[in-house]
Amino acid sequence: MPFITLDRAFITALIERWWPETHTFHLRSGESTVTLHDVEIITGLPVDGRPVTRDSRFDKKKKKELCERLLGLDPPGEVMSGFKVSLKWLRDNFDRKVKEGDDEVTVLRKAWGYILQLIGGIVLPDQSSSHVQLCFLSLLDDLQLVGTYSWGSACLATLYHYLDFGSIVGLKDLGGCSYSCKFGVGSAFISLPPHVMGSGSFVVILLLVDGMVS
User: Fold this and answer.
1) Which of 77, 133, 140, 198 has its CA at 20 to 30 Å from residue 30's CA atom?
2) Tens digit of each residue's pLDDT (9 = 90 or more) over 12-32
3) How many other C-beta atoms lie within 10 A of the C-beta of residue 124?
4) Where are the transmembrane segments (predicted)?
């Protein structure tokens, strides 16, 4: 995905025209929306296959076992927020760089940590912009199955959910498929006046609108 110069007022205007009941933008030219086909073409994510479902509840024992087995590390309490782990902690420990001599287990753990960053920072970010649900890690256990999940459908459902959420008057934060100039920021719509969106980017929305305008 290329760098996109953002017009915050334009993004704000779009969100103010989002209709949660129909999941469409109400524009002067009629109703438009982001479709599953748009997500597939723009992001390249698979839209067919197994649903991305998971149990987001973790007890300490399950969390410790899952993280130590797949990541080789148990995230300390200060980097956790409920059942979420800090994206910064993941970046600090999993920089996707493989060193000569790394064994297969080490390479796999780096892959798991990096993919978890992609999920929480780009594909399925929430409004926190800084954490990702650890439950997604359980979906990565078998890398042969990862590509069989319908990540595109989950991406679109998450985008719809946070557009519904963000269209409520008075709310500042927004989640959903995003892109920013610095990886790992996730959805960067934070600490802003009500209904003024920040420096993150709804790539799917912007490219959809660009297509409508052209």
Assistant:
1) 198
2) 788 888 898 998 989 888 898
3) 23
4) none
Q: Is 213 exposed, middle or buried (0-12, 13-18, 19+ CB in 10 A)?
A: exposed
**Whether the predicted model's global pTM rises above the 0.90 cut:** no
Give me 191's structure tokens: 């600490």
d(C-alpha 112, C-alpha 140), whole Å: 7
What's the length of the chain? 214
Positive or negative CA dihedral for 137, 143, 148, 152? Answer: positive
- Radius of gyration for the chain, computed over Cα atoms and rounded to the nearest angstrom: 18
| Single-letter residue type at 54 | R
Q: Which residues contact 6 (CB under 8 A, 6 or more apart)?
A: 199, 201, 206
Residue 184 neighbours by CB distance under 10 Å: 18
Q: What is the 3-state secondary structure (H, E, C) of 140-173?
A: CCCHHHHCCECHHHHHHHHHHHHHHHHCCCCCCC
Tell me the per-residue pLDDT of 58-116, one tens digit each, with 9 for 90 and over: 778 888 899 999 999 999 989 998 888 999 999 999 887 888 888 889 889 999 999 99
HSE-up (13 A, CA, CB side) for residue 65: 6
